[in-house]
Amino acid sequence: MKIVVGIATAGRASVLAEILRDLMRQTRQPDEVVVCAPSEEDMLGAAEALPGVHLITGPRGLTRQRNAIIAAVPDADVVMFFDDDFLADPHYLQAVEAHMAANDRTVVVTGAVLADGIKGPGLGVAEGRAILAARAQEGGPSAPEPVFTGYGCNMALRLAPMRAFDLWFDERLPLYGWQEDVDLSRRLAAHGDVRLLPDARGVHLGVKRGRSSGIKLGYSQVANPLYIAAKGEGYPRTRAWEHIMRNLLSNVAKALRPEPYIDRRGRLAGNMLAFFDLVRGRMTPERAATL
């Protein structure tokens, strides 16, 4: 089984280098590592951090960059997408390979996130490594669990069904993507199983550099779920609206006293603009990129 690690990145060269160095700790080494960024500047230090890494440039945008990675590895069996700020336990790829080899119906695997810095101010690399070390000896092997979607920060895709049914990340979801993992997971779920693999552990640092502005993200929080649900490919409208309302209420509640690391007012403005466009019948996911 040829397993390729793919990392889409932008604006985080120093963190990317640390993540690449960390990959050398994997007990099952990836057969290839491919990094895609909008410019060579975004990948400074990558070649030194991981000799042999394949560096490519492509149009800015998470979905476009991930599609470029898939296109660059036509002989791969599995692409393991890690965010450029995701630290994987040393046995992560070993667990993915064992599961994929034994379960040919599994099309998407996502791991257990021990800590997610995206929900707070973010975690440093040293903090992430300490969390992994502290949790390394916990429990024995755990059974895979069915899940609705993979989590984009650590998501392995079996490429055979993607090639057979011409499935790609939807490039109409611009910039940060926002729900691109749900969209592709649900389309792949029509051809197999989506599984959470508890033995594949990691820490998502949630680095704030390189993320979309508040207003752009706020627009996507409304536009993207409704767009994905409208495609009718396994993402119910009820789930889309639950996701939208949860983010909207959070932005409203925290707009007066926002966290210093989140642009709540920008997100709320983006939410309102998306609803305004929805009423006028002109809401599209691409509009977020123009704000």
UniProtKB/TrEMBL annotation:
Q: Which UniProt keywords apply?
A: Glycosyltransferase, Transferase
Q: Which InterPro entries match?
A: Glyco_trans_2-like (IPR001173), Nucleotide-diphossugar_trans (IPR029044)
Q: Which residue range or ranges hold the Glycosyltransferase 2-like domain?
A: 5-113
Question: Would you say which domain of life the source belongs to?
Answer: Bacteria
* A GO molecular-function descriptor: glycosyltransferase activity
The text of the family note is: Belongs to the glycosyltransferase 2 family.
Protein name per the record: Glycosyltransferase family 2 protein
